[in-house]
Amino acid sequence: MSSDVIHTAWCEILTDRIANNLSLALSLLPEHAEFCAVLKADAYGHGIAEVAAIVCEHRIKTVGITSNAEARLVREAGFEGTILRLRTATPSEIAGAVADRVQEQVSSLYTAEVIDSLTEHSEGVHLAINAGGMSRDGLELNERDGHDTCQRIVDLLGDRIVGICTHHPSGSEQDLQLSDQHFRSDLNWIFSNTALKREQVNVHAGSSLSLISSTPIETDFYRCGAILYGILKPELGFEHTMQLKAQITNITTYPQGSTIGYDRTTTLTRDSRVANIALGYANGFRRNYFGRSHVLIRGQLVPVLGKVSMNTIVADVTDIPVVEVEDEVVIFGHQGTGKIDIKRIEMQADTIMADIYAEWGQRNPRVYI
Ligand SMILES: *Cc1c(COP(=O)(O)O)cnc(C)c1O
């Protein structure tokens, strides 16, 4: 994005905070456990090239991605370590990722054969197990042919298998204990019934939620995304890493009784000064925020009125003594002593922060601070 373009809606990426969150996360690692920085979804909306640069500075050895485009950007950022794909790839994807040295997940004979048939494929692969009940793409050992399939995959790929992984579906202590037990028993079966040896593979299952939980789990490294972006545990010092902002483009006074926005859902109960703000649902200020959202202007929390338009919203600024066109409006983040925090925005959006970050980051120009 050329720097002489004026933006009236943008998201700020707080790179120092990503670096801080990463350092904090590393300090939470149990002894001997390693860290895999998860950079999928364009680094949760933060821009994968920029976050990969931070990851390189911290000498992180493994990153997690999903698409080939992400793998390429990580290599272009100068990352020399292991790139792990966090889902099963299609045959074309696998072939297309050889040059970027992506380690693939294998959970079926089909994928194992695809990899075996690619003579130029020399990276290690990871056997993905459905231990915790995600049932996305992990191999289910307890299914009728599960054990047989597992043995055949190991027979075919042998010591090209460098990892065995699963993904736990819940961070609640009880649920995590159960899926960890399940994973351990699957691992026991694999090490007793195939040629794979515990000391020859990395076992990995942890994510941000298990890193901050008190349940000890079987994992050689933690694949963490959320925690890098300050989504969890503010009490430990993790801070949000993106702020969504826009500018006021116009200020008008309308008389009591005026209706606001599409379908006239809102009627002014007093003469009101309203500010028109340069973002709408196209920027990820979702239509379902209607009736329950506030923004910060001059450090003050003010209500958004009426249905959300594609590129604008309207806020009631009657109670702010001085407001001007080009004033900065904070949709998420801090302004003066005011703040709209993760809890508040998650309630407003009725979803989780990772979902919101990913959307904002893709729908707005990113400004790196
Ligand atoms: C997204 C993902 C992670 C990271 O999860 P966070 O909760 O964001 O830390 C880890 N492992 C897999 C397989 C994933 O898909």
From TrEMBL:
It comes from the Bacteria. GO terms for molecular function: alanine racemase activity; pyridoxal phosphate binding. The modification N6-(pyridoxal phosphate)lysine is found at K40. SUPFAM superfamilies: Alanine racemase C-terminal domain-like (SSF50621), PLP-binding barrel (SSF51419). GO terms for biological process: D-alanine biosynthetic process. One of its GO terms (cellular component) is cytosol. Substrate binds at R136, M310. Its EC number is 5.1.1.1. It is an enzyme of class 5 (isomerase). Keywords: Isomerase, Pyridoxal phosphate. Its cofactor is pyridoxal 5'-phosphate. InterPro entries: Ala_racemase, Ala_racemase/Decarboxylase_C, Ala_racemase_C, Ala_racemase_N, Ala_racemase_pyridoxalP-BS, PLP-binding_barrel. Residues 241-369 form the Alanine racemase C-terminal domain. This is Alanine racemase. It comes from Reinekea blandensis MED297. The lineage of its organism: Bacteria, Pseudomonadati, Pseudomonadota, Gammaproteobacteria, Oceanospirillales.
